[in-house]
Amino acid sequence: MNFFSTIQLVFRTLRARKGRSLLTILGIVIGVAGVIIIIALGAGAQSLVLGQVTKLGSNLISVQPGKSNEKGPPAAVFGITVTTLVNSDIDAIRDQGNVPHATAITGVVQGSGSVIWGNKSVDTNFWGTDGGFPGVMNITMEAGRFFDKAEADGGANVVVLGKSVGDQLFAGTGMDPVGQVIKIKGAKATEAGGVPLRIVGVVAERGSVFGNDQDDQVYVPLPIGQQQLLGIRYLQAINLKVDAAENVSSTIADINRILMQRHRIQREVDADFTIRNLADAISILTTITDALRIFLTAMAAIALLVGGIGILNIMLVTVAERTREIGLRKAVGATNSAVRNQFLLEASLLTSLGGALGIIFGVIISYLAAVGIRTLGYDWAFEISFVSIGLAVGVSILTGVLFGLYPAFKAAKFNPIDALRYE
Fold it and tell me: Cβ neighbours of residue 190 under 8 Å, at least 6 residues apart?
């Protein structure tokens, strides 16, 4: 019997056992689709996390008050008030030549309060910062401008609105926000009724970063945020943007040297500040998400293993049911290799069909999942790699061959006379 005759015989056999064939294929479909879906979701999750981080800017360095070890966050993250960073630290870092690779530097404080315009009031967050903030945080303007260094240093009564705050206050009024005067009430506002500030600009839509709405906030000069809204005279962070990734390490060393000298600290272990960079955060997050993808892919591979065991069981049952047929074929001249190849082809065909259907369903479900997640407001990427498809197909075919070998060899070894006597 030639190869094409064997193929025809295999198709006839599978059609004669449609229900059993479909159930066998289903196990492979679930396994292959699972591998593709999980790898696609892992890639989407990774792109979401890294995209959220890079929205904050590229090549960023942040100086936080309080010391921490390399793996832990500084004390300020836990709500502990640390006052070791002050405004003059920014000036020292900004001094020409001290940190040559820093393209933008800003000091920041944050708080929450109410923005009032007329009879409208919006609860929001505010940033006290300076003219370097747009360069560090990749701010673009929808209307007007961001306040400059002179306004920030002088504590001018100006404010820049985030997109959603501007919409909540002025949508439907027909009025241009730029030039209007609002009031901000902070936790420790020094003026009754809030601090009056003139709007000089509205930031273009920025979206969310780790669930934090970047449009639901306003920006005020650093002295306004510190003294009039929060009642403090220290910084919560100093952020810098570096000209190139390869210069991040040298910039960190420059900042560390400056602050150690200014704070009169002799030993690194006694430092009262922590310097972190975004590249480290991206590296850590990438490692975590890669490990998660590998783990989830391994879980999906178990489904393929289960499907392979199902093929083994089905093929063993098939061999037992067709013992007399095998004996008849061998009695009329079928060779051991012909019988073995028939059963191997049956197993391989089942897994190949299952693999093809699994790819189709996996891609469709992955796409629908990505679309659904994007409708929830997340920047989720639809990513299907040829590696995942190749892996799924290769494993499915290998599964069919491996789990079909034993039944195929068992069938080929039957003695024709014993097989014909089998009841």
Answer: 227, 228, 231
